[in-house]
Amino acid sequence: MGFKVFESSKSAQSTRNTPDKLENMSKALPKGSTICSCCLNYHSCMPLLRFSKSRLSLGEATIGNRRLLALNCKFMDLSNTRIQLLLLSLNGCFIVRLVGLIPDTWDWVRIDCGSDTSYKDSNGDTWDSDDDYIKTGDNKQVASTSSSDIEQLNTLRVFSEQNKNCYTVPTPTSARYFVRAMFWYGNYDGLSKPPTFDLEFDGNKWATVVTNTTSFTYYEMIYATKGDSISICLARTRDQEFPFISRLESLPLPDDMYPQMRRDMAWFIRYRYNYGADDRIIGYPDDKYNRIWEPQIPPGLDSVTANFTSLDETSVNVPPDSAIIKAVEASATDRINLSFGFDNVSHLDHVEMYFTEPFLETSETRSFNVTVNGSFVNTTTPEYQICTSVWANLQSIGTLDIQLVPTEDSTLAPIISAIEVYTVSQPLVIATTSQNDLDGLEEFIETFDQLKGWSGDPCLPNDTIWQWLNCSTNQPPRVTSIYLSGFGLQGYLTNFSQMDALEVIDLHNNKLSGEIPDFLGKLPNLRLLDLRDNDFSGCVPQSIIDNKQINYMIDENENSSCRKSKNAATIGSSIGSVILLALLVSCCYYCCCRGSKQTDPSPTESTVEFIPEPAPAPAPVPQVIVQQTVEVHQVVRNY
User: Fold this and answer.
1) Is the pLDDT reported for residue 62 higher than 80?
2) Smallest Cα–Cα separation from 415: which of 475, 354, 460, 371?
C-alpha cells in the first residue's frame, strides 16, 4: 500500500505544534472517528492515535517548490477507505480523518500465535504476532502440517513456565464480541503427546481443550465485554502437559445480532452446520462475522439448492447467503429429525434455525411445526429468497433432539438451511479479584522483573490461581497469602499496603534490600511474616514489634544493623529469665525439704537434738514465675 500524499504550503514549515492543540482539534470530530495526525514539523508533533492497533508512518518529499507530507496508517487496508483532509488546519498541522471504514473489520484482532512478525495474508488481512498481547511463552514451528490449508496453523506459542498465561485482547467497542481460539499440535515437540489444558476468559472457564495428533480443534464464544479488553488465558491443569495456542481472533458484533443473549452469560458454540452442502467449510469472507459453517447432510435427507444465488432479505444474525441457498429436505411429507450429542449433565442450550423457500411454487405450500426435546417451539412457513429464523432456549441433559413436522395443510416436506447450537454458560463471575489486590499485585509485577508476564485474574477461576498466591472464596475474591520464597527478587520492597486481607507474606531467600517497610506491621490480618535470608538494613519497624498477632522471622538478614544487638538483648534476657526462674525454684525446693527434715526426722537418723533457726519469710514466688513465663513466651513468638 502506497502513501497518501497531501500538499502543504512552504510558509508553515517553521511552525511548531503541540499535542494539546492536536487533542483540542480532535475533540471537534464526531465521536468514534478514527484519527491520525501529521505535521510538517512532525518531530515536534506527537501522532494522535485513537486506536491501540494503529501504526503511523510518515514521510516527505519535495516536488518543485512544494513540500509534501506523506501519511500511512497501516492498521487496516485503506483500499476501501475514503480519506478526508479536514479544514482544521492549525499552524500547519493537519488532522486527517479516515471515514467510510468497513465496520466489520476495523476492531478486529487477528493473532497468528507463534509468528515472529506481523504480515498480510492472501486476502489482504493483517495478522499480528503475539508480542503486543502477551509477554510469556515461546514460539514454535509445527513438525507436521494440518490437513487444512490454514496458514496460521504452521506456528504456535507454547507456555511451559507459569500455570496460567493470558492474552490481553483490546475491545474498544462496548459490544458483544465473537472470539475464536484455534489449536493444532502438529507434534511440535517431537513427543507425539498432545496436551489437555483449560481455556479461560476474564476469570471464567471457557473449555477444557483436548488436542490430538490428526486434526486441529477450535473453540468459539460470544461474550458481552465489561471493559476495554478481554483476558484470554491458557491454564496448565496436568503435570508436564503444556498449554499452547495456534490462532486467536476477536471482533465486535452488531447490537441486533443474537438479541436473546444476556450480558451476564456467554455462549459457547457446539454445532454450526450448513445443511445441504458437502464440499467446503464456509467462513470469512463469505461470513463477514468470521463464523465457521461446516457442511452437513444428515442420513435420509435430500440436498436441495435454491434457484437464486443471493437473498433479498435476512431477518436476523446475518448468516452468509451461501449457507442459506443450500438446504436439506425430507422425503415427501415426512418429518426431519436432527439429533445433537452433549455430555450427560444438565446444561442450557440456545438454538438458532434458519430457513428459506428455495423455489417459487405458487400452487404449493410448505409449513411445519418446530419442536425441541418434545416441546413445541413455533410453526414456520419459509419465504422465497428471504431468510427467517426460529430460536429456542431450553434446559437439556445429554442429547438435544429437534423435529420439523409438516402441518396438515402443507403440501411440501419440511426444509432447513442452517443451524447454530450454543451451550449457555453459568452466570459469569460478578466481580473479579478485589481492585485493592489487583493494584498491589501490579506494584509487584512492575517492580520485579521475575514477575513480569503474570496476567489475567490472579484468583479466578479458583482452580487456576497464580502459583505464588492463595485466595479467599469471597465475592470478590481476596488475596490472603503471598509465597515468593526463592524467586530471586532484588531491590526495595514495594508498597502493597492496600492488600489488607493478607494473612501470610513469605519473601525469604531473596535479595531484597533497604529498610523493612513500616506498613507490614499495620496490615490488619497479617499472621506470618517471613523475611529471612535477604539483604535488609536498619531496624525492625516498631509497628511489627508491637503487633502481637504477627509471627515474624528476620534473623538471617546479613545487613540488619539492629539484628545482633536485638538478638543479643533478647537472648540475654531469655537466659537471665531462665536462670532466675531456676534459682527461685531451687530455693523453694531446698526450703521445703529442709523444713520437712527438721519437723519429722526419720528414726534411722542421728538423735542429736538440734534447734532450727527461724525460717525466712517466703518470697512471692507465684508472681515472679508468671512474669517470667510471659517473658519467655514472648521470646519464642519473636523467633
Assistant:
1) no
2) 354
Under 8 Å between Cβ of 319 and 299 = no
Closest to 418 in 3D by CA, of 355, 334, 350: 355
Q: Is residue 72 within 8 Å of residue 59, measured between CB atoms?
A: yes
What is the rounded average pLDDT of the residues 245-252?
97
Burial of 118 (0-12, 13-18, 19+ CB in 10 A): middle
Closest C-alpha among 628, 532, 639, 511 to residue 573 = 628
Q: Which ranges constitute the DSSP H helices of 138-285?
A: none
418: DSSP letter: E
More confident residue, 509 or 588: 509
Distance CA 240, CA 203 (A): 23
Q: Residue type at 251?
A: L
Q: Mean pLDDT throughout 410-417?
A: 96
Q: Which pLDDT belongs to residue 402?
A: 98
Mean pLDDT over each residue of the chain, to the nearest integer: 78
> How many Cα atoms within 13 Å fall on the side-chain side of residue 53?
23
SS3 503: coil
Q: Which residues on neighbouring strands pair with residue 35, listed in sequence order? A: 97
Question: pTM of the prediction?
Answer: 0.70
Q: Which residues contact 328 (CB under 8 A, 6 or more apart)?
A: 275, 276, 296, 297, 298, 301, 302, 303, 304, 336, 415, 416
Q: Which domains does the chain have, with CATH numbers?
A: 4-99 (no CATH), 109-255 (2.60.120.430), 303-424 (2.60.120), 435-561 (3.80.10.10), 574-594+619-639 (no CATH)
Percent of the residues in the chain that have a pLDDT greater than 90, as a whole number: 59
DSSP bridge pairs for 378 = 370
| 548-597 pLDDT, tens digit each | 999 999 864 555 556 443 343 343 444 455 555 656 656 555 555 454 44
* Closest C-alpha to 17, from 67, 98, 89, 84: 89
Residues 6+ apart with CB under 8 A from 591: 615, 616, 618
Place of cell 526450703: 591
Q: Residues 432-479: pLDDT tens digits?
A: 889 999 999 999 999 999 998 888 899 999 888 999 999 998 888 999
**What single-letter amino acid sits at 102?**
I
The set of residues, in sequence order, having a beta carbon less than 8 Å from that of 509 and lying 6+ positions away, is 485, 486, 532, 533, 534
| 3-class SS string, 534-571 | CEEECCCCHHHHHCCCCEEECCCCCCCCCHHHHHHHHH
Tens-digit pLDDT profile for residues 375-396: 999 999 999 999 999 999 999 8
- For the record, the C-alpha cell of 50 comes out as 485513537
Contact yes or no for 630/638 (Cβ under 8 A): no
Element housing 304 (H / E):
strand 302-305
Q: How many residues does the chain have?
A: 639
- Grid coordinates representing 549 are 498477632
Contact 52, 79 (CB under 8 A): no
Helix (H) or strand (E) holding 633: helix 621-638
User: For 383-500, where are the alpha helices, taking DSSP H only?
Assistant: 435-447
> What pLDDT, on the 0 to 100 scale, is given for residue 81?
34
Query: HSE-up of 18 (CA within 13 Å, CB side)?
Result: 3
